[in-house]
Amino acid sequence: MKRVRTTSRLVALVVVTLVGAGACALDPQAGGSGGGGAAPVGAAEQVSGASAAPGPDQPPATTPAKPKATPTRMAPPTKPTPKPKPSTAAPSGCPQGEHQRAVEAYLAQLGGFGRVTVDGRQSAADCAAIKKFQKRYDIRPVQGRAGPTTYDVAKRLATTDTGRCEAGSGLTFCIDLTRQTTWVMRGGEVVVAPTVTRTGMSGYRTPAGTYKINFRNVKEWSDPYEVWLPYWQHFTQGMGFHETTTYLHDKSIGSHGCVNLLHADAVRYWELGKVGSRVVLVGRRPGT
């Protein structure tokens, strides 16, 4: 009897053991398919450590909560600060022209207009000198700006070669038709520095050559053109010196062959000239 009971207990123990092992291997909640064979009981826990007791310096393993994303407010885009445009006005308030340095150099070469600094930067002294130059040669407006007309006049005067005029021993009026300048010499010396003029336009070219003044009148009337000719000094073919009746620096026009002068120059030439005074013209006006 005892042997039968013992045998029955052994059989029951074996049955219980086999049923428990199969249940662990096929537990659908484990997520496995069973095709890989049954893993030893507790093997997964040892790998992950999820059920292992924490050590003395190890805090309980907890899954850290994901921080809530805080929406970042984007700052509105800022417009770039525009760079300030360079000022064209000098500290003196006098405007600076596109030919500043060249005009400074020409005025320094010509002299007589005040102190200028050849550095291409407008200053109060430069402005005063340029204004004085503009007033002398009737360049409008008189504002001290080294613009195209101021540059052109300064260049023509500074590059005039007075030695081109064969003056002789007496008084001679000289005209450079190419540069549209005129000056006066006596005994080989310049007595009136080069100044501006405007001669015959296209179709009315003033001819180069040597002539003599043969008629003068302080105020001559022009029959063909019906205009007064102040400080008239005739030297050839109806051509002579006289004060201009239009803006001298308008290059789109010109005379009908005469040598136009600014008022101050016409007066000075009248005071110096006389019948028999020599007139020498060299070169040729561009475009004629």
TrEMBL record:
Annotated metabolic or biological route of this protein: Cell wall biogenesis; peptidoglycan biosynthesis
Keyword Hydrolase: no
Residue span of region Disordered: 31-98
UniProt KW keywords: Cell shape, Cell wall biogenesis/degradation, Peptidoglycan synthesis, Signal, Transferase
Low complexity composition-biased segments: 63-76
Pfam families (UniProt xref): PG_binding_1, YkuD
Keyword Cell wall biogenesis/degradation: yes
Signal sequence, renumbered to the chain: 1-25
Gene3D superfamilies reported for this sequence: L,D-transpeptidase catalytic domain-like, PGBD-like superfamily/PGBD
Listed SUPFAM superfamilies: L,D-transpeptidase catalytic domain-like, PGBD-like
Name listed for the protein in its UniProt record: Murein L,D-transpeptidase
